[in-house]
User: What shape does this take?
Amino acid sequence: MASLSFTYLLLPFLFTILRFPAPVLSYVSPDARLHHVQKETSKYRVHIVLVEPPPETDTPRHHWESFLPITLTDSGEQRLVHSYTEVFSGFAARLIDSELDAVTKKPGFVSAFPDRTLQLATTHTPAFLGLTRGAAGFWNSSGYGKGVIVGLLDSGIHAAHPSFDDHGVPPPPARWKGACAPGSAARCNKKLIGARSFVGGGDDGVSDDAGHGTHTSSTAAGNFVDGASRDGLAAGTAAGIAPGAHVAMYKVCVLEGCDSSAILAGLDAAIKDGVDVLSISLGGSVSFPFDQDPIAVGAFSAVSKGVVVVCAAGNSGPAPSSVVNDAPWILTVAAGSVDRALEADVELVNGPHVAGEALTQVKNSSSPNKKYPLLFSEERRHCQYGDDSSIVAGKILVCEATDLPTEMSNIRDLLSAGAAGVVLTNSNTSGYTIVVRDYGPGVVQVSTAAGVNITHYATSTRRSSSAAAAFFTFNSTVLGARPSPTVASFSGRGPSAVTPGVLKPDILAPGLNILAAWPPALGETETSSSSSGGSGRFNIISGTSMATPHTSGVVALVRSAHPDWSPAAIKSSILTTSDEVDTNGGPILDEQHGKAGAHATGAGHVNPTRAADPGLVYDLSVPEYAAYLCALLGDRAQATIVRNASLSCSKLPKTAEAQLNYPTITVPLQPTPFTVNRTVTNVGPAASTYTAKVDVPGSLKVQVSPATLVFSKAGEKKTFSVSVSGQATGGQDVVQGSLSWVSGKLVVRSPVLAVAGLNRF
Assistant: This one.
């Protein structure tokens, strides 16, 4: 009877989640191949069902099938799609609505939600992050991540790529339980130690038809490959952030997207296999309550077993509250630029020089500085000229960016009609963020501000005696571009729609125009490296999908140096040692070159050279997360995520968002003091003293008690309180500062945010 009552209470929850909109594209595609495809409609729909664990006298499969009407559908398909034992106890099955209703009434049923389709959300970046091969420093002292297993849920992997050669990589640790699936096309070795597919019935191998999984895998843990480039651009030695670590690929995505049932199956297998880090470069377009979010539920199980889960913040920025994968137990990664530009300039005759970028740089050797008439039409600002050669032939056209398929089509028509070139200007939303794409030769992309200068030149000279004219100069790869890093326009922004009292995203990492491994069958440029054996290609793409494996690689380095640290301790070490300034020492800027707030950058830009020696960490345990969930979502949702009867809400305190022992601090902006408590653990020198340093604007008052923390041994914990009061000035909704604990060269920095209207405490 108790089970039936519980089921009755869950029915409104089931009907509610069925109304949620389907996720949209969150991966910044390099071309128009990756797109959402509507699946063929059927009366059967895959549902993910959580149930009580089977009794000891029963097998999991028999227990799952006891909830189903029969084992086959009317068309002869197997009803049972996936089974889960690690992320939770349950299964994914094909059910019609009436059958789902019957399942919810069976004893042992816990909850269910429909399968959703999510979307797939470096030669120089290690050096940009301060990692230098062969030099004394953290990269070398951490063994380049040796002994750590990085699992990726993605679109597969091109196993023959030289980035996955195992030279210099030791055998996997004895605790590793995974393998390459029988019949898989993957070539496993000491680098690539696991490869399994959870799509297409699991029998299509782990080949990568999207390129995404190959790119992210090599970014996180690819081996050193000399002579890497993309058509000669971004040339150098390619390497992942943890080139000594092992890679395990769990294929859960195809070109059309990633079903949540497959994602959970991959998570389940990765936990069983024994990965140390899970890198998940995918997500939806909106954030769901955590008990209805398969990634959040599965990630909680992984974290509770010691696995660090790193996820993309999503590519729906710069809109506020566009961040996804925002559960506090997940390390959520935003995307920023690096100090490398693929420079191509627009030279305006009798006008200014305008800097831009181009992914395809083909120089005209016969007449390199030949001038062409420059044409811009306000009425055809997106270059809807079709193939009318009488208008466009022999001219450089100025076009404003629109949606990618339209851009590709319009530019192709222009070049086919004889246009001499195209200047593609960013939309106002993109600002200074240039996501380079392969539009073909003769196309230069420029920022919004540069586009304003060019269009002003084109329209003003039209009214003068001299005609507007221009030519392109291609300068290949330029290092030292400034400002850097900046936040990419597409990067998902906070505050979290689900838990605004916890700062999200967590961290900023390189995600704009990143070069990494690519499957040769997808037709990108082959590297000149003789070591590639004809199978090593590289491509440049962008997204929080690219920022995520950079951070996963940093996690692997820290885990290699500190194998006994908890996931929360590793996250804390990365957040509190991050950079709050750019390479010039000024504030990190956003896509409009305004000062970026913490809801764009998180704690700051990742700095791996400091992350392994943070001094202090803010640790969190499963019971603390459980108490937070009790306050945030209530008993039933907490039980769905935590699934531990000894941690029921009746036995736990309710921990408000502000009081969660997170390494960042978010409180309401109010004139009376609001006080939070934090506890830090000493992971630095045994005998050490830390002094509080507060850096806040004049409109904010922050008091820390005690102002000094004295430690006498490693592992010792100290608790302190932070009281914040203030008021908004100049219409600000968020007033931001920081609290740092300083001991010699060790600086443990936490952003402090006071947010107007935050009344959830």
